[in-house]
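User: I'm preparing a small set of examples for a lab meeting where we compare how different chains pack in three dimensions. I only have the primary sequence for this one, and I'd like the structure in token form so I can line it up with the others. Please keep the answer compact; I'll paste it straight into my notes.
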Amino acid sequence: MVLFLFIVIVAILLGIVGAVVHGLIFLLVIGAVLLVADVVYIAVRSSHSRRSLR
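Assistant: Understood. Below is the structure token output for the 54-residue chain.
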């Protein structure tokens, strides 16, 4: 869970820097992709752990 929170914070920071600094819009895109990948990872992980408990 700590890794999930760390990656979310990094994605938010990259997004903010990409939106604020002129010419670094690619950081905004990287932050958004990282955030989506992290949410998908945690969803798959929690789905997998719920199935194994049954």
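A couple of notes for your slides: The longest helix spans residues 25-52. The chain has a mean pLDDT of 84.

User: Perfect, thanks.
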